[in-house]
Amino acid sequence: MLRVAEPGAARRGHRYRVFERTGWIGVEDVRRLDPQTWTYALGSTKTHMTGVRREKPLRGEAVVALQAWIEAAQLTEGALFRRLYRNGRPGPGLTPDQVARIVQRRARLANLPGDWAAHSLRSGFVTEAGRQGVPLGEVMAMTEHRSVGTVMGYFQAGALLSSRASDLLSADTVD
């Protein structure tokens, strides 16, 4: 959803592609392991308040977008995701309200119906993982969901999109 490009806004496009995969972290929370792999560290969350650094891998297209964003915005410290001023200069870190507005704007640009919020990124990740057949345990390890019941609603919605059970009455499956 966030990949819908704005004309003439290449740097914003890099930010959106990375943002949909990593959330709100600081430059100091990402580190490069090799050219194709970075990690990002999660701080305290509602399910993990111990302050223990938990790192998640980032690979593929997300790494390309992350590197492009860091280079284009010339980031060395502070918030990874920031406001971009009209002159292209990065400003302060994004607030939760700004993130919500970005998600809503990108959904409108993509002509997606419904209500969208920052949580849509996390739930969309789980739904897409289900659609692609990623094992539930791997999804939960990335999202830090503790409750299988909570994550299953999103996961099943995605998995059902490619389920053979949804097409039982088609000509090829009926004897």
TrEMBL record:
Recite the UniProt keywords alphabetically: DNA recombination
**Mind telling me which Pfam families this protein's record contains?**
Phage_integrase
Give the molecular function GO annotations. DNA binding
Positions of the Tyr recombinase domain? 1-168
What the entry lists under InterPro entries is as follows:
DNA_brk_join_enz, Integrase-like_cat_sf, Integrase_catalytic
An annotated GO BP? DNA integration
Q: Does the keyword Coiled coil apply?
A: no
Q: What is this protein called?
A: Integrase family protein
